[in-house]
Description:
The chain is an alpha+beta fold and 302 residues long. The protein is built from 5 helices and 18 strands. A hairpin with a 2-residue loop joins strand 17 and strand 18.
Amino acid sequence: MKRLRPALFVVGVLAPCGCGSPTAPTTTPLSAPELEYRLIAQYGLPFFCDPDFYPIAREGQEQRNALDQFQAIRANAAEFAAILEHLGLPDRADYTADEKLSIYREHKKLTYGVQLTSSSAAYDFSLRIGQTQGYRVGGTITSSGSITETSRETSFNTCPVCLVRGTTIDTPAGPVPIEQLRRGMPVWTVDASGNRVAAIVLATGSTPMPPTFEVARVELGDGRTVTASPGHPTAEGRALGKYAAGDRLDGAVVVATARISNNGRATFDILPSGPTGEYWTTGVLLRSTLTSQPSEHRSPQP
């Protein structure tokens, strides 16, 4: 698990340029956790959803988890050494409850805030910076800590607002699972006049979720069903989790709603080209969370 302070989530406040204070590369190969700290030094604290505070905050939960998980955290020698160095703590047999809490928060920060994937002689990285309207930054970092940013996309950073694996997106070629969509692939969207038009995927995003995360399932009277995170916006700009039986969604009456477990799996989102940022999933019109641009149309067509 990973980091955060007593708040729903941790967000790194960053200037629009997206640059922190760069750290010079070293000639000594660094461990993956040390590289994650290099990225945090470069970009600032990343945005992530803290499992101790989202989706439900329980009094004392973070401190209990800090104590319960301490031995497991310590067993990861590379991460534990990086955390101790970052906090300025010595390596000793035991630590106080407050020190274990600090170590646990750093552990969460490294686990949820920065995603590293080994790629030949370097690592690919991805992290989100800024709260609500922010960025998703990607690139590579070498074992010596040399950072090359290769992508920076507008990202609507909330906790979380995406679709579950296997959810299909309506495309001119038929329904496609969202996790299989890539940049440049065709999808249906809505233009500024409310017409259904073909577009291409401009960006994709994926967010790891804590095991306790639940998604919202909404069933409509015409047989359509949509499942996504409770905060995912519909075309009307309303969070999916706010709908109740009797409400109307995308031209139909809501007949049932439920919260179901996502079992800690990642959620996904896409951004289609065009002025609205909207797309159909299982026949229901939703709005992408990868852009904050509001929809201007009034009457989307089926």
